[in-house]
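Usage

Read records sequentially. Each one opens with the input sequence:
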Amino acid sequence: MAVMRRYERWLVAMAVTAARRPVWTLMATLLTVTAALGAACWQLKYFPQRDALLSADNPCQKRWLQYIQRFGADEDAVIVITGANPARQKEAADAVAARLTARPELFDRVFYRVDLRPLQYRALLYLSVPELEQLWESIRHLEPLLGEQGRWGWRMLSIQTLLSRAAAALVSDSPSKMDALLLAQLPALLRAGSARLHAESGPPPWQWTPHQQHQQESWSEALQQPQYLQTPDGTTTVLLCRLVGADASPQESRQAVVTLRALLDEVQADYPDLTLGLTGLPVLESDEMTQADQDARRATLIALLGVIA
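and closes with the structure output:
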């Protein structure tokens, strides 16, 4: 009861003071509101990372922080290009990458294609151990061709000789190991010879592995031209990039996202038959913070109008 009476006396005193000095009361109220608005505009900080929603003592959060310390917490923005023409998608991806690399202060680690052409002459690195052993066994049995008498041995090694030997191996009940290797390698020899006849240059037969034909064509294409991050059906191409300074401040991240969207609009105008989209965790966090900032300003304005009214 004593506390309630003290509170009532204090409330009565405040009401009497406001009634006797209305101008001073209004000025004090305006100063308080102005100070509150200034503090909200200049001192209010947002925490865009979702880590701020969890306690640092949470076991899951501890494991996540350990992972970040070991591998880093960089997240990429994802640019998605869709359309009916895969070649046009690649051109658009090149155009986007050129614009991103021209702004190193905002974007880095642009990744959208892999160029394996420097590895074309190191194809042995892709063979398995059994395939390497088989290759070594084949070379060992070719010693008559690689030795001092190789010139005469090569004269005896002709397509006619190989076909005759293969025909004999097919009708034999117990072909030798060399005959089995010949039968396994013969399709590759024929393909290489056919390619040589239809073109000025063809792949040497020892570059053809005993994999299935579609796997051979896939590897050959991968080693002869750059490979884009494109879906197997050719309807979507993906480009990744990191926003520089995204972890430093939300303003820098927001500016990078705004610039990235402007660059995509420029490329979209040049490729109207394609659809360019933007996603990724940094983009989602930036959009969430932008929307939260707008909602906070709108709520502050509504509250101020309510107080004035």
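Summary fields computed downstream for this record:
- Residues 124-216 form one domain.
- The first helix runs from residue 2 to 20.
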